[in-house]
Amino acid sequence: AQRVTQPEKLLSVFKGAPVELKCNYSYSGSPELFWYVQYSRQRLQLLLRHISRESIKGFTADLNKGETSFHLKKPFAQEEDSAMYYCALSARDNYGQNFVFGPGTRLSVLP
Amino acid sequence: NAGVTQTPKFQVLKTGQSMTLQCAQDMNHEYMSWYRQDPGMGLRLIHYSVGAGITDQGEVPNGYNVSRSTTEDFPLRLLSAAPSQTSVYFCASSYSRDLNTEAFFGQGTRLTVV
């Protein structure tokens, strides 16, 4: 079965420090992975997807199929990065094409 | 475009009451889905629809019904509310069922069942 794990419920870093939010997945097929972010009082929105290989708001994520990981990284955290981050796997299973979300990591960037 | 609109934003129900959570999108997306968000569990799929007139169950469908009479609307009905249904509910839509398609989310409905 598909599964996404995010081991940290809460991650606190100081402004300007590097940040890494961990994500591991289990999926028998070829994965499509995403990071979604939810800022305070806002809706869940796409941050980036691995297929695009892009950097959004300074964040990058590399798919490592050997380690089944898709960690989100930013070299210098900003206070406005404080939010809830969800790693998601787009999978085709008994439910059709759907997202499997991790439990989320709350990032708190301290001044 | 308004995107995905959910109503209400907050609701308190008594055990046994029924209600409908509304979801509408104006992006002409074929694919719509409902998730519930619980602490430590991420978002779990309740029901989904691949087009008007077509719905199917997700991971946690018990206690919920859906219908899809139009492309735009995908309401979620709680038949007889239970405290275990206290959660935050998100509606999402996407353009297609391709695996790399982005999902667009509503702002969520925070439901409390007492």
What would your notes on this structure say?
The complex is a heterodimer of chains A (111) and B (114). By secondary structure, chain A is mostly beta strands. Chain A has no helices and 11 strands. The radius of gyration of chain A is 14 Å and the shape is globular. The termini of chain A are far apart. Chain B has 114 residues and is mainly beta. In chain B, strand 4 (31-38) and strand 5 (42-51) form a beta hairpin. Chain B is globular and about 40 Å long. The interface between A and B is medium-sized, with 25 and 29 residues.
Blueprint (SSEs and pairs):
The complex is a heterodimer of chains A (111) and B (114).
Chain A: E1 3-5, E2 10-14, E3 19-21, E4 24-26, E5 32-38, E6 45-49, E7 60-61, E8 72-74, E9 83-93, E10 96-101, E11 105-110
Parallel strand pairs in A: 2-11
Antiparallel strand pairs in A: 1-4, 3-8, 5-6, 5-9, 7-8, 9-10, 9-11
Chain B: E1 4-7, E2 10-13, E3 19-25, E4 31-38, E5 42-51, E6 54-57, E7 64-66, E8 76-78, E9 87-94, E10 104-105, E11 109-113
Helix-residue proportion of chain B: under 10%
Supply the helix-strand structural class of chain A: mainly beta
Structural class of the helix and strand makeup of chain B?
mainly beta
Mean pLDDT of chain A: 90
Mean of residue pLDDT values of chain B: 92
CA radius of gyration of chain B: 13 Å
The largest sheet of chain A, given as strand count, sense and whether it forms a barrel, is:
6 strands, mixed
Secondary-structure element pattern of chain B, one letter each = EEEEEEEEEEE
Low-pLDDT sequence parts of chain B: none
By DSSP, the count of extended strands of chain A is 11
Q: Indicate the low-confidence ranges of chain A by residue numbers.
A: none
Topology as H/E string of chain A? EEEEEEEEEEE
Shape of chain B: globular
- Cα-to-Cα separation, first versus last residue of chain A: 41 Å
